């Protein structure tokens, strides 16, 4: 019998350091703890004793009772209020109250650097985005794009044309980087990638990544963005790439400014993405502060191979294949341990995969160290199991060949400080 989602989430998160353990307990022990905590609270009422009772009820799977016990503690300052909000959020998460779960997890993260809870919040965000996408499509006729502020911007995956199939995910990774860079400006509000992915999935566009000039305004209305950035990556013979982006107005159905085009190569793609971002700021009428410009100039990774693995993870995540996405993000972290975006997505996709086939094994891997063997086991014999041919320009990189359990091997570049 498949494990319930709560148990799988615990496999992903209870071993992670940072905050109080949110794992459930076996029924016999859990109910004993609830009885003991209730007796202690009755004998000597205090916020701390009330908190312990709420925690015990949560661990016993008594989510409604836990929320009732913790409710009056949520506004309490300090550790008691933080912990009460966290356990109330976890209970709300289990019963499907996503708004309360979001608030509670966010409150905990405001005071604690906790990767496990950050991953839970990302999973809640994804489910909220799915619900919002369905609601937007159901009420599409009533949506008025003209009411959307001009400073709201969405970015869709760039369509890949030409080249071979190993390059098909490049447009997803480039869109991710553009979202991050455009978000550096305080003058525009960029729609979260998760919300855009959810709408494209509902529209059955995520599989191909096709958002063209005709469909872009509709996508903008559905994700709540007045401006929508879309484009094409064209791979030509000889290894050259032409990356073309444009900004559409969701209300008028017209282009904003001029199309932005970069001629580049795969080896220079990370530099070209920065040039695209700065050009898009110009087309959007945004003047960056020196601090914002410096933030945009920061590259997420020095390693092309790490970025290519990240692209494949982004594409798999857009498809809803969280198990494969988790493996590719793990590969990116293995290549570059300092690739923070990949590390965050690795943990978040482990939580999302907890309710999918083989979810228990992937969820448990979220807290485990990233090793070459684990990555190879996760990806092979996938048809996309190899990064293909590439060269990390200008980096002193060790290349370690790891044999898989099936014939053949892959070469993984490993960053060495």
The N- and C-terminal alpha carbons lie at a distance of 45 Å
Compressed to H and E, one letter per element, the order equals HHHHHHHEEHEHHEEEHHHHHHHEE
Assigned CATH architecture of the largest domain: 3-Layer(aba) Sandwich
Main beta-sheet strand count, sense and barrel state: 6 strands, mixed
Rg from alpha-carbon coordinates: 23 Å
Annotated CATH topology of the largest domain: Rossmann fold
Plain-language structure description:
- It is a single chain.
- The chain is α/β, with parallel strands linked by helices and 417 residues long.
- The chain folds into three domains: 130 residues, Tetratricopeptide repeat domain (Serine Threonine Protein Phosphatase 5, Tetratricopeptide repeat, Alpha Horseshoe), CATH 1.25.40.10; 153 residues, TolB, N-terminal domain (Rossmann fold, 3-Layer(aba) Sandwich), CATH 3.40.50.10070; 96 residues, no CATH class.
- Helices cover 51% and strands 13% of the residues.
- A hairpin with a 5-residue loop joins strand 7 and strand 8.
- Helix 2 runs antiparallel to helix 3, helix 7 packs across helix 9 and helix 8 crosses helix 11.
- 43% of the residues are buried.
